[in-house]
Task: structure prediction
Amino acid sequence: MPRWSGDVLTYSASYTVDVTYRCAKRCGYCEYRSDSGGLIAWDVIDAQLDEAARLGGREVLVMSGEQVWLLPDLELRDETAFVDRVIEICRRAMWRGLLPHVNVGLLTGESLARLKPYSPSMGLMLETGSDDLRAHAHGGGKRVADRLRHIEDAGRLRIPFTTGILVGIGERRADRERALRLIADVHQRHGHVQEVIVQNFVPKPATPMQDLPGATLPEMIDAVQMARAILPASVAVQVPPNLLAADGWVELVRAGARDLGGVSANGDSVSPSLPWEPVARMREKAASIGFVLHERLPVYPDIDADLQPAADELRRALVGDEVTYVVCRNVNISNVCVGSCSFCGFMRRSHDAGGAWHHDHATVFAKIEDAVARGATEICMQSGLQPSLDLEYYEDLFRRIKDRWPTLHLHALSPEEMRYIAELAGRPAAYCIERLRDAGLGTMPGTAAEILVEEVRRVICPEKLTTSDWVDVMRAAHRAGVRTTSTVMFGHVENWDHRIEHMRVIRDLQRETGGFTEFVLLPFQVERNALGRHYGIRRSPSLQEVMRYTAMARLYFGADIPNIQSSWVKLGPDGVAESLRWGANDFGGTLMEESISRASGADHGQNLEALEIEGWIRAAGRTPRERTTTYGVVTQRPRDLTVPLRPLPVAGGGQ
Ligand code: SF4
Result:
């Protein structure tokens, strides 16, 4: 289990794609640049991106020599033409659900602005704090002021940024200190530097500086400590784990480094002679000094950065401009529940409690009849946990519903309900799911997930199913051919580490089963539940925070889960419309009746007509499309809507 409170070390699973190995400069230490060759061909790049997607990493490091448009034989007209090519590489990466991290040398602010939607984070090494190093005397030079201007422009554009220094290229200790202070200054102005690499120079054969000694471990320890002392705590110090002999990186972690950077699945193109060791091995070594090694996104969630353009672009690349919704009705059998989740304002302890309700079959059928008459293709059913709502009850109910409306889709039973049903039956969840599937269960909601990290669950829902229970029920459903949604309920006691870990749990299962149809963001509703009172949480997460998580979810899941849904019940239709700019592509359902969120304090109504949803989507400049529960095209409905309706009885029931 992850241990978030302890010492965490991170890395990013990446893959390197190069624009060209040519370069207009000639740094004395460089093993990357080449005097021959041109732009890397598109078929090579496509094959690399295919491999990157297959290997399951998330980040694609897009690299190049510097200012290559100055080399006439490459036939790049100017910087704009070069950036066009970089954007095209990023686009092709995004189509495959990968996140580009562009590090292609010095660019103008205009180019950075153009790249921003296609590269959620970017990088440029400052290298050092002095202009007159021998390392840069061989050709072209690298001026500190130029590089700082680039980093400053990225800050103005709120681009999450990686920079760093080189140690041992002939600079003095004072040069390193100056470079780190310059980085700290620019970060203070913009808050965009998420990590600073402290990289040791390693002499490479056949380079002008091949005879130099390279940085020593004591020099590196000193540089890491200096970086830690100068940089604000929010800026991670990164060290490359492949460039120091004899596990030197472990000593650098002891000295204050907390990130190992992008571990590229296809090797280090800057230092091709120095491969990384397997992540599992690095994890063991980290553990031996008390650290847990976690994979992270190329974007740090707590950085002050503008993720909207990249999330929006990735959404467009993966699912286009359509926004989907489903015509469905929530039909809940009962709000009487033996569970005790502190954030739930829905449940009543017993049938005698005030506000308790329990619908009989006649009421349930009247509600479904009403929904079908109004064009519903799906019934969503979740209720409290009670001994009477057992396997036989649901099996019988589902059969009766399907007998009457064979094409109606039943989206029912949360993992918690399924676990409880299995417990009542004394059989595994897989067995119950198969029986219910045979009785008509179509898909299951992936609710009850809340935050899939035990230290959070112990606080908010200690009696609810554990993370591994949730994963087990979902896995059993997927294996039985019952697809499910996935959800997160956030904005209470959890932090960003928990939110990312939650998504990792879901992504890993998705990579195993492919059974999740979507990821649904459910911001915590504070008003009417004990958790908010107990922890003094006065407000639900702000719209800005919800948008930020929406963008993170889009960037995190990429092609693994291409459908990201916002909840209009929680956010209001205007909030969902805004989320469509931040990576969301699904509006959820019409619901027609929504009692769980409303009982917990959500302000927004019970029903949104399909036409209203379409109006909100069109107003956001996007194209609406009604979908089936599993994102297919609606070809049939339980009721032919061209036949006029007879007047309906008002649906019965106590809500
Ligand atoms: S280090 Fe970068 S700028 Fe210097 S020669 Fe190599 S590729 Fe070019």
User: Anything to note?
Assistant: The pocket of iron/sulfur cluster is lined by residues 23, 25-27, 30, 32-33, 65-66 (CB under 6 Å). The domain at 14-239 is CATH 3.20.20.70 (TIM Barrel).
